[in-house]
Amino acid sequence: MQFTPYIVAWAGLTAVVLALALIRFIVSRQEDDNIHLGSDQDSVISKQISVSMKLQTLDRWGKSLTVVSLVSGLLIAAIYLNQVFQGSLIPKG
Description:
Number of strands: 0
Radius of gyration: 22 Å
Number of domains: 1
Helix content: over 70%
């Protein structure tokens, strides 16, 4: 069984997870942790809400794709190790 397509797909998925982490880092730099209560700061409050919603979306996708990447990587490794083990049981000669 050729594992190259599966490893390429897994590497692509892992690259997407890393890209999401980088995007989250960039978006989180725009985050303002101060509490703004005045009515004159409505634009700041709306920007805080917008950044918070973006971070929540990135976190949800990041967590989901990280789990998928981890499980698929472990599954590929398990199948590969099983084939290596099965191949070692065949007598040579």
